[in-house]
User: Fold these one by one.
Assistant:
Number 1:
Amino acid sequence: MVVGILAVLKAGAAYVPQDVRITPPRVLRQIVGTAGIRVVLTTTAHELPGGLGTVVPIDSIPDNAAPRKARSGGETAMVIFTSGTTGQPNGVQVTHANRCNVLLTEPGSLGIRPGDRVGQLLNIAFDMAAWEILGTLSHGGTLVIRGEEITRIGEITAINGAELLESAGVSGPVIMLGILVVVTLVNLIVTSGSAQWALIGPVFVPMLMLLDIPPETTQPLYRIADSCTNAITPMSPYFVMALGFLQRYRRSAGIGTLFSMTVPLSFALLVVWTLLFFVFWVFGIPLGPGAPVRWKGPPCHPPNGPVRLCPRCSTTSGRSSNWRRTATTNRCSTKDSTHSARGSSSGSAHPASKPGTPARSAVTSSN
């Protein structure tokens, strides 16, 4: 999709990056309508839902296709949408001037020089991916595109982690407490909620699903830990803002003063939210409409869950080891045959600064 991004910019349009593997069809349609998207670029490896307008698989365009003359575009270079985990996804328009100001001046240039090799690892829907791609190419560096092995690292880690925890006999509540601790510590370093979820979600969601903990339960676990340590990490820009306000009333206050005042509050929030969550867990209280805190019945039969149910394996009392290994793919392997699985999978607009302002093209795919 790097070629698609460069083509959109050269054509004078703006691109709206999305990953069809994790963005629900409803959200994709909403983004297309909000941003006024006319063309959706993808690859033949991805199947897109209907209702998105004109779809162009860029890897099916003939090499001898006649080029068209580029035209001058508008001010908008890209529109980045949030994931929408806290409500309606919001999009922010980024202009060419803003993007150039970040990429071409210190320290935003990151010291990239001709001959430097930079790995392209981030999901294209993440705003920092533009830094990776456009920043490297703008300074004459070499962009090293990630391969299939890296794109599946989350899946591999999830499966191996689930098998390790299962073999160790770790119970569900202990696993969930471990998730809270890990996310709390990561949040001290990565303070962006969307960036942290992009790192943790592809691992924790399928891993806990394999351990029969639904995604509806994983999300509040993440939110509890993510919300409690934002106030105490100097890595957060809001920490500096809070320190500035504190010094207006106590001029001698420093980082240690603010830290000592916020740590008790942060710890209290973590304890209270955790206890409240386990009240829901122990009594089986739904987290919302159609959002059970735990799956009922045999492990291989989660109600309406995103785990794909195999026509053959679903008749057993539990998942076989072969099915557990392939639960995050669309294939199910048994000792006597390999057959397709069936089921569904679950799966980012302040609306674009000027609602209805057309972002003429979109890149809707994964890398």
Number 2:
Amino acid sequence: MDHKVNGQGHLVLGGADAVALAEKYGTPLYVMEEEVIRAAMRAYRQSVERFYDGKGLICYASKAFACKEMYRIAKAEGLGADVVSGGELYTAGKAGFPMEKVVFHGNNKTPEELRMALDLGVGRIVVDNFEELETLSALAAENGVRPNIQLRIKPGIDAHTHKFIMTGQIDSKFGFALETGEAMEAVKQALACPSLNLTGVHCHIGSQIHEVTPFIRAAEVMVQFMADVRQETGHTLGELNLGGGYGIRYTDEDDPVPYAAYMEEVSEAIRACAAALQFPMPFILMEPGRSIVGEAGTTLYHDDRRDGIPVVTGSHRIVIGPGRPHRQDIPRLDFRQRDIFPQQVPRLAALAGHRHRPGRRFVRPVGQQEVVLGLVEDVAGVVPHAAVDRHIGPDTRDFLDRPDGVKGGPRLAD
């Protein structure tokens, strides 16, 4: 991602001086550039119009970054929203997001969260296991409603990504397995529930995937399964949700495929597979998150301990930052390098501190520069505080930069 520098040598984000932002609002500070977010959303929406004749819905995977302003932006850009907790559902509701365009995920939804989804009229609930299927059926009957549901399927696809973020294999904790017959049994049970309306199936094979082939294979497997369902039950499923997982650039070595290429090649595979099976083209849903906000986000940190701790390799020094202990570093981020852009004075540094586990190399330095004000982390920590904890930490600040200046302030999610 290209970065602008002003006359003072300070990084500029969305027209705002990064050093001034950090000095005014404190750190750690998430800074999100609205125009970058909107451009990514429009690109996805336009690709649906181009490659699926408009018969699809892009749902922003809000676990990547959830606050009211993000839901307002998604609404304005014509997107749906993928939520994974009652907290995200609550925030979306407070932002006035249309509930009929919400997809509710999660492999351990509580009865309270399911009741909340039913009360709000969520458009689709993705059921992850048999226990949830039974619970939701009972709750829907009690409430006198018939929610639309999709079943999460494990297509058995190797996503060629890190094992921590592979979710489509048979031993994944998410969804019903195809190989064992579990998925077909789940379909039959769902169809037998008069209080539930089974509209389609869902899969998500992993995250930060830089290849098109795994997505194509997953789509083919899912269309074949939909055809098998029609043959065995007589019911034609109308919706196919392919999840997300499209990779982004964390470092210069990363080379993600352009998103339009993903969309075009996957759409061609779906059309060809459906035609071969004489199955009607399904309504397509996709759930990008990281690829919408990742490169729009920058995290600012202060460097309060300037002496550092030498690293054995001699190529880096550890910088200790301030802050309350906070579980922001979930495993999917532990191995993920991302570039940092220190300000002024030569020295290499790597980041550690209360927000990153000791001994974990969370970021890597770029260029022979020392951190004076602090570290600037390119690509804000995707799947941040909101997805790790049900309650957002009180001392993390979120901002959205706009061309006309900074919008919002500390605790934008409130």
Number 3:
Amino acid sequence: MDKLQSRCARLLGLDDSWRVESVDLQIEDRRVEIHLSHVGSGVICPECGVACGLADHADERRWRHLDTMQFTAELVARLPRSRCAEHGVKSIEPPWAGKHSRFTLLFEAFAVEVLQACRTVKAAAALLGLSWDAVQTIMDRAVARGLKRREATPIKHIGIDEKSFGRGQDYITVLTDLDGSRGLDVAPERTQAAAESVLATLTVEQRQKVCAVAADMLPAYAQAVATQPPNWCTTSSMSPSISGRPSIGCEERKTSSFRPRTTTGSRAPSSSGCSTRQSFLPSSDVASPPSRILT
């Protein structure tokens, strides 16, 4: 392996099971192709992680990599396929890319940074030189990786709110961690089914730790929360947001008024002129309301 191929292997972070065969510079197409080959006879089954024999190599594939100077860089390789006694013949996942992805992990990480700096997916696609669908797929994959890494930590205060997006009356339902200032999940529409779907993403342990829910005043949200564990203190807020807890503007909304849980809730008049929070609680909690509420 010459010096250029050796350096490319180091830059790509390849181990001893992969080798850089050639680096092809195509001036007219403004592209650099890095051809890789798998060496060795042993592979790991992608399904069970058991070491097994090498079956063969799949057809040649390409992955978009970070640009080199002003040239587009692509990795070209034939992935080895394992022969597992339990799962049969399977293509292994390359160390430089995710399963079924046409982009390297480093390129996807760069694309996510571009997405964060742009207002729209279309603008990011123009900067990256990709189609809208390709950039959307990269974003979906990044979200899936983040959700897979996210730990089911206890959440005391959650928020459910509607958000409009796009043109016209298009809405989504947003579930947020008010203490952690982060979004937990979203669902299309602003219906009871949408609220129930985002609440279903919480684990049983997380639901047991919830102390209070700041929800939009839509009856659909109240009905969705009414089916949750009785330890939840549900209050209607003006606008719970990802940036922090809802802003409380009057003393009545600080102390709240506690009533038996209903499917729609009732709103008490406010002497200070701003809407009061509604609370949906079991009848047994009317005399002794929980001490932990959103303030």
Number 4:
Amino acid sequence: MLGNDARAYAPTPSHHDAPGKSAPTTARQKKPLIAVVDDDATIRRSLDRLLRAHGCDAITFGSGCEFLESVAAAPVALHCVVLDMQMPGLDGLEVQRRLRLLRCELPVIFLSARYNSRAREAALRGGALAYFTKPLLHDTAVFIHLIAGVAGDMGR
């Protein structure tokens, strides 16, 4: 887990983000920074709005590869990553596995369009905090509470 003055592995904004939108580069940010990795632009925008409405900053990525390249390239203090389970190229489980290989202890929350008990168990065994199905609808409060808890644990 990261301390208040620690730097996290983290991403630089993707070309999927709005022009001029950049992530803070220090661990002493005013708002928690959450990475959203999903191949669906609508989901990325929705989660970005949801997180911002609840006092977080968000940085979005359209693929697991794009996210991992950013994690390896530039330190930005992230509090958490929200990962889609099924994406072209690297799926969420593979992204989670590669984060661990990078010794990145970034908390992971999974989202999936379809419930899959095997994938859920694998994600949780791999250290994920939670596994939600899309759309969040009835789980939005739980999702936000989990994000707030992670942000609080990170010295918010």
